[in-house]
């Protein structure tokens, strides 16, 4: 939904298109919803979703911790007011010099998923806490995150055991069920795997302390999604099922679910055309595409809600594409997007639910197009 505050901003400021506007009131409400849904879990906002300083400052003030993927993101979180104990280096693929720099800045919590990464952390951040990421299948997620990150549970035991041998604090395990996860049961199997790792480590005399349950919490695009409260109940039930009355420290890492529905992109129709006289499908070209911030339309995974002033007129499916000279810059073609037949050059369109993973994906000067301009209100 485009909030009244965003509508007013567009009407009074009339910013050039394309641009993103994020409403901080929505971010505030989302944080409070997560806090209420999982009161015993620490919230580590995934900075990569949207690192706007205004968002980070608000969340830091509210008490959020931060999941970071690079030294630059660590520095952003510190600048926003977070203390080092509220920041984790959650990327499992880190240069050793970046681990050393993070350690120098006071960061003591690092993600790993293999012995080789453990060895880097042991050299560059001696004594640090590490948690090992376990693979999940991502079934039910619109943007699965399996394969590149994580290892099977049996290997996680070896990784954490090696961490302990090298003087690190084998602190816990993590997983990510997949971004835009709408299956409430997704955390159940992952927590079962986490429990297996806890038991295997205990047999080695090592008591793990934490389960990082990752992100995956969705935002609303074209379909309704469960509430934060519904996810909270399902996750707590799974924790009780697998850990009984000895529930460890838990972390969640909302990104999309924290800021996705807080943002709206204003775009403009650049061209409407067909490829032949008897072509039944229009091509609608916007002034934003995959390289300008809509990278998550790759494989048509994320389908944004698009609002126009001509909604209510007769509509038909069209191919929706971006403005660049790259044939990959097509958002929806396999599953064409219904838009009004009266839509024409110069018309404004609003792309809702775009507060997450848009500005951070916006390419720098590809074809000379500027990175996506962002306003936070």
UniProtKB/TrEMBL annotation:
<keyword id="KW-0663">Pyridoxal phosphate</keyword>
<feature type="domain" description="Orn/DAP/Arg decarboxylase 2 N-terminal">
    <location>
        <begin position="27"/>
        <end position="259"/>
    </location>
</feature>
<dbReference type="InterPro" id="IPR002433">
    <property type="entry name" value="Orn_de-COase"/>
</dbReference>
<dbReference type="InterPro" id="IPR029066">
    <property type="entry name" value="PLP-binding_barrel"/>
</dbReference>
<feature type="active site" description="Proton donor">
    <location>
        <position position="325"/>
    </location>
</feature>
<feature type="modified residue" description="N6-(pyridoxal phosphate)lysine">
    <location>
        <position position="48"/>
    </location>
</feature>
<comment type="similarity">
    <text>Belongs to the Orn/Lys/Arg decarboxylase class-II family.</text>
</comment>
<dbReference type="InterPro" id="IPR022657">
    <property type="entry name" value="De-COase2_CS"/>
</dbReference>
<dbReference type="InterPro" id="IPR022653">
    <property type="entry name" value="De-COase2_pyr-phos_BS"/>
</dbReference>
<dbReference type="InterPro" id="IPR022644">
    <property type="entry name" value="De-COase2_N"/>
</dbReference>
<keyword id="KW-0456">Lyase</keyword>
<dbReference type="GO" id="GO:0033387">
    <property type="term" value="P:putrescine biosynthetic process from arginine, via ornithine"/>
</dbReference>
<dbReference type="InterPro" id="IPR009006">
    <property type="entry name" value="Ala_racemase/Decarboxylase_C"/>
</dbReference>
<dbReference type="InterPro" id="IPR000183">
    <property type="entry name" value="Orn/DAP/Arg_de-COase"/>
</dbReference>
<dbReference type="Pfam" id="PF02784">
    <property type="entry name" value="Orn_Arg_deC_N"/>
</dbReference>
<dbReference type="GO" id="GO:0005737">
    <property type="term" value="C:cytoplasm"/>
</dbReference>
<protein>
    <recommendedName>
        <fullName>ornithine decarboxylase</fullName>
        <ecNumber>4.1.1.17</ecNumber>
    </recommendedName>
</protein>
<dbReference type="GO" id="GO:0004586">
    <property type="term" value="F:ornithine decarboxylase activity"/>
</dbReference>
<comment type="pathway">
    <text>Amine and polyamine biosynthesis; putrescine biosynthesis via L-ornithine pathway; putrescine from L-ornithine: step 1/1.</text>
</comment>
